[in-house]
TrEMBL record:
SUPFAM superfamilies for the chain: Carbamate kinase-like (SSF53633)
HAMAP family given in the database record: PyrH_B (MF_01220_B)
Superkingdom of origin: Bacteria
EC number, as in UniProt: 2.7.4.22
Gene Ontology biological process terms, A to Z: 'de novo' CTP biosynthetic process; UDP biosynthetic process
Family as reported in the entry's similarity comment: Belongs to the UMP kinase family.
Protein name: Uridylate kinase
């Protein structure tokens, strides 16, 4: 399983932040201001390496549509609640970035003029190209999708070079490391290998979009000090999923 991990000098990337990553483990607070501040500081450092950064925020620290639906709620409505949850994370990140003097904006796929700009692809593209960090909120704006799919979609339409998926695990393993302590972590793996070995990287819609549009995904642990900066700057970190 060889790969071009050495060529990670990306010009434009989409950083996918899972909602859970913004919550302090064991805390009742859905958003930890301290964690969001750390994320903002790391994004600021990465900007110095001239990378254009779009951020897609998840919402799982507040709400997941599928879980609420399994408990009897109408799925589409539950998903809209989930999309609104992502906006709270986006606003928290915007505030933390502004406190670090990082130029940023929130574009929401569900219009809410008082708190965010509407998502306009051409405008987002321009903002990214002048170095503004664009935070994409409210997912795709449609129910039955995930924010991983949002990241794949925004990466495709913004011509991003890669998706950086910041999660609670440090990469992709050959089997579940919680169940198998000998599980091997891959430095890199192809899309085809992920499918043939049934490795769970993203939901199938998100994964297929990345594969079809040849967008590498870097899965890395958000919790390691400096990891976001390293990932955004193209350092060798986590697992890179690529075309091969
Ligand atoms: N969601 C949606 N459409 C989208 C993106 C998200 O309906 O395009 C809803 C869905 O209910 C999802 C929730 O928003 O469960 C939060 O997003 P996600 O679960 O992807 O967040 P993460 O797990 O990354 O924190």
């Amino acid at each position: 399983m060889s790969s071009p991990t050495e060529d990670r000098q990306f010009k434009r990337v989409i950083l996918k932040l899972s909602g859970e990553a913004l919550r302090e483990p064991g805390s009742h607070d859905n958003i930890s201001p301290e964690i969001v501040e750390r994320v903002a500081k790391e994004i600021k450092k990465a900007i110095k390496s001239d990378v254009e950064i779009g951020v897609v925020c998840g919402g799982g620290n507040f709400w997941r549509g599928a879980s609420a639906s399994a408990r009897g709620m109408d799925r589409a409505t539950a998903d809209y609640v989930g999309m609104l949850a992502t906006v709270m994370n986006a606003l928290a990140l915007q505030s933390a970035l502004e406190a670090e003097d990082v130029t940023c904006t929130v574009q929401s796929a569900i219009e809410m003029k008082n708190v965010a700009e509407p998502f306009i692809r051409r405008k987002a593209n321009r903002q990214l190209s002048v170095g503004t960090v664009v935070i994409f909120a409210a997912g795709t704006g449609s129910p039955f999708f995930s924010t991983d799919t949002t990241a794949a979609l925004r990466a495709s339409e913004m011509n991003a070079d890669a998706i950086m998926k910041a999660t609670m695990v440090d990469g992709v393993y050959c089997s579940d490391p919680k169940k198998n302590p000998d599980a091997k972590r891959y430095d890199s793996v192809t899309f085809a290998d992920c499918l043939s070995q049934d490795l769970k990287v993203m939901d199938s819609t998100a994964f297929t979009l990345c594969q079809d549009n040849d967008i590498p995904i870097i899965v890395f642990d958000i919790n390691g000090e400096g990891n976001i900066t390293k990932a955004l700057a193209g350092d060798d970190i986590g697992t890179m999923i690529h075309k091969g």
